[in-house]
Amino acid sequence: MPSGSSPPRRRSPSRPPALTRPRPPAIARAHPPPTGEAVAPADRTVLFLQGPPTPFWSELGDAVAARGAQVRRVSLNAGDALFWRRGGAVSYRGRLRGWRRWLAAFAAREGVTDIVYFADRLPYHRIAQKVARAAGIGAYAVEFGYLRPDWLTLEREGGGAYSHFTDDPARLNPAAPAPDFTARHGHPFLHEAVGEVLYNLAATFGRPLYPCYAADKYYPPVFDYLCWLAKLARGRAARRGAAAVEAACRSGAWPYALLALQLQSDYQLRACAPYRHQSETLAEVIASFAACAAPAQRLVVKLHPLDNGWENWPKRVARLAARHGVADRVLTLDGGDLNRLIRDATGVVTINSTVGVHALRVGAPVKALGAAIYAMPGLTHQGPLDGFWTAPQPPAPAVVAAFLATLAEQIQFKGSFYAPEGRRLAADAMAERLLAGRVGPPGPRPAARLESLRAARRARGLV
Questions:
Q1: Which of helix, strand or coil describes residue 330?
Q2: 376-383 long-range CB contacts below 8 Å, 24 or more apart?
Q3: Would you say 143 and 120 are in contact if contact means Cβ atoms under 8 Å apart?
Q4: pLDDT of residue 449
Q5: CA–CA separation, 100 vs 96, rounded Å?
Q6: What is the pLDDT of the chain when averaged over all its residues?
Q7: Is 236-403 the same fold as 8-20+28-189+409-457?
Q8: Cα angle: 425, vertex 118, 424; to 5 degrees
Q9: What are phi and psi of 436, to 5 degrees?
Q10: Which helix H or strand E contains 456, and what residues bound it?
Q11: CATH architecture of 236-403
Q12: Interacting residues of 133 by C-beta distance below 8 A, sequence separation 6+
């Protein structure tokens, strides 16, 4: 069926067609299958939902098909259709509230055994996880790597707070091979930007083809791009300011801790953090720093390199620092060498950014304020934030090594969404692991990580 066409039998996409054949046996089995009971690729049907805006998604489909499995694709907007090069896609044009019923019927009719998606917290993908659990279908999340750059993630159901990766250092595998951190698959930022722009513009201006699509964007795409134009216009002045702050940090005139901000639009904040907005994080961290840090210490607030500038973090930081009487001790940095800043810092504070993994790799103390895959004893500071400024708990080198090795062994794949050779390597490795039934750590999702997040969000009235 050509891409962009309606679901079979020409019925409304919000009302799926009746089942015409019994559900295949593979769907009835709970995931994952028992050890040693692999399902042959010829008996697998892998459904691709939304993916990254690059050729990678189609190439992963090619790699799955080359190993004998059937491939299905559902497009939810015109951007999805634009980046799916294999053909054979169907389109869902109904409302979000009808998606669960439609998807369940589609999966049963097509004999779907596995569902793969990019960004596990998207509304359509959260619903797909529920459909998969109810039907005994494998559900897998693809994401940028925890060990980035040059690594991608494939894990069961979801990542971050929803990951199945252990939160117990005793369950790490110190015998796993050490990951290769050599960067081989770099790409110009332009490749990333062009893909994002094309996808979002197609989804926006193709809305007549998908009138009921629920985008769930934090910033409307066109507004986001206008913010970027303004940020680019300020680029030279911003670089001069960043160079001055970075030079002050390198001078060694005072010790400093680093607070790494994240993208306000990131689902790691929207779904896996105990804050409504990062302004609440800033208020908490700066108040704690003012009350508990040594008078000589500084706090450097590092902006995310892809921040669009709309939130005006420098102004927010300056206002909070002045309110707490530390205006001369809190600096904002938009740019700079992150790795050098981490190495020279007394510690790194983050919500749940992968900056925390970078810090652990160089032995820097880390305080995670949200649900992070690396927030466990032996890795991050386990005490309250107030104690982090003067007595940060450093990571244990043996635990760091075991964590990185286990992460790479279980849910990380060397490669890239952008560089052609990196795409090929990752697609082949993911397809092989997926069809062999060896994705992610076995067993249930660790309960404590998610329960702790939910308790913190309830305390702030977020659920």
A1: strand
A2: 376/166, 376/167, 376/168, 376/169, 376/403, 377/169, 378/169, 379/169, 379/403, 380/356, 381/347
A3: yes
A4: 93
A5: 8
A6: 91
A7: yes
A8: 10
A9: -85, -5
A10: helix 447-459
A11: 3-Layer(aba) Sandwich (3.40)
A12: 139
The whole-number average pLDDT for the span 46-60 is 98
Where in the chain are the domains? Answer: 8-20+28-189+409-457, 236-403
Can you give the pLDDT at residue 38?
A: 67
- Would you call the peptide bond into 149 cis, given omega within 30 degrees of 0 as the criterion? yes
What residue has token string 């999966």? 107
**pTM, rounded to two decimals:** 0.89
**Could you report the per-residue pLDDT of 144-170, keeping only the tens digit for each?**
999 999 999 999 999 999 999 999 999
Percent helix, strand and coil across the chain, each to the nearest 5: 45, 10, 45
pLDDT at 9: 41
Mean of pLDDT values over 418-425? 97
Which of 222 and 434 is assigned the larger pLDDT? Answer: 434
Sheet hosting strand 114-118, strand order edge to edge: 90-91, 70-75, 45-48, 114-118, 138-144, 151-156, 412-414
| Assigned token pair, 118 | 């990019």
Structure tokens of 360? 């652990």
Structure tokens given for 262: 């994240």
Report the candidate in 457, 459, 247 with the shortest Cα–Cα distance to residue 351: 457
Q: Can you give the pLDDT at residue 261?
A: 98
* CATH architecture, domain defined by 8-20+28-189+409-457: 3-Layer(aba) Sandwich (3.40)
* Structure-model confidence comparison of residues 241 and 341, the more confident one: 341
Please tell me the distance from the alpha carbon of residue 78 to that of residue 147, in angstroms, as a whole number: 31
Could you tell me the two tokens for 55?
């050729």
